[in-house]
Known about the structure:
The chain is an alpha+beta fold. The protein has helices spanning 7-10, 20-25, 27-36, 55-62, 70-76, and strands at residues 16-19, 40-44, 47-52.
Amino acid sequence: MPRPRAQKQEQRVALATWKLEDAKARFSEVVRRAHAEGPQAVTVRGRPAVVVLDAREYERLAEPKPDVSLVDFLERLDMGGLDLTREADTGRDVDL
């Protein structure tokens, strides 16, 4: 039985794929298409190796994220109504 795909994978856009030898021979076209159409995947021996993408897209993806401490993050979750009480754990009976 096939495993269901995660929702995030289903939203992926299929990348244009180039064999390494073709990408080397037509590198200008790979770059032009990366600007115009989006990321271009390059494979080596049939396996994904690298992706060529527009510089602005790279800068957007590589933009540093704000540093937030764990305490600040947890305080921002607004979990005031969350009940964290639990029953007392007395262990288990074991026959020796």
